[in-house]
Amino acid sequence: MTGLLEGRAAIVTGAGRGIGHATATALAREGATVVLAARTRQQLAATAAEIRESGGEALAIPTDVTQDAAVEAMVEQAMAELGRLDVLVTAAGVAAFGPVVATKPADWDGMLMVNLRAVMVCCRAVLPVMIRQRRGTIINVASVAAHRAIPGAATYTATKAGVIGFSRVLAEELRAEGVRVGVLVPGAVDTPLWDTIPNSPDRTRMLRPEDVARAAILMASLPPGASLEELTLLPSGGIL
After folding, report:
1. Tens digits of residue pLDDT in 180-228
2. Sorting pLDDT into bands at 50, 70 and 90, what band is 176?
3. Rounded to an integer, what is the distance from CA 217 to the centroid of its chain?
4. 65-96 burial by CB neighbour count: b if 16+ within 10 A, else e?
5. Whose CA, among 92, 171, 196, 226, lies 20 to 30 Å from 135?
6. CA–CA distance, 49 with 182 (Å, rounded to integer)
């Protein structure tokens, strides 16, 4: 049985764990060759091994997405080895919570760099290839925090709202080029992101990373004449 993405090439950032890991393995199951990009070499190698053991194809490229040159080099290597790029999923993300008055501007920089600027840089890096192909799907992972006011999440919310705004404009800029841009807007997902956050919601009630991955597959596998540009995915219990 042929997968929905047979013969396609996909890049997934944050592929070592959480949503990125789940999405990378899901893409591979559907037949895509997956470029795994993350800083964590050990987790990246484990994801690649898991995909290969299941009969899929993966290319692990350790990449710090906050470094522009590293992103450009990752895309160049992917093109050199695969010859095409059909899907980009920006799943790398970090979070820290607390009231604005109790934080310092320097505390915001990591989230601004990874959650917003790196998404913009990764999108820009694949655009020449996708425009030349006149085909491609970009899927940026935002958060329901962008639409709901959650005390203690001001900076995180700002980054994810920025991702949605950036994606909406990018979708319009690329519409005539045959390149689709969509945003996944999940509620709380049970990922390692919560490991260092005290008093987190009940993780058993959260979405699973695999839930978000299924939504990404839907976006990536639609026929060329359709585009799913924003999808909100919540736990069955709603906002936690």
Report:
1. 999 999 998 988 877 777 777 788 889 999 999 999 999 999 998 999 9
2. very high
3. 12
4. bbeeebbeebbeebbeebebbbbbbbbbbbbb
5. 92
6. 29
CA–CA dist 180, 50 (Å, integer): 29
Active site residue ranges: 156
- What does the block give as tokens for 62? 């350790």
Percent over 90 (pLDDT), the chain: 88
pLDDT tens per residue across span 92-135? 999 989 999 999 999 999 999 999 999 999 999 999 999 999 99
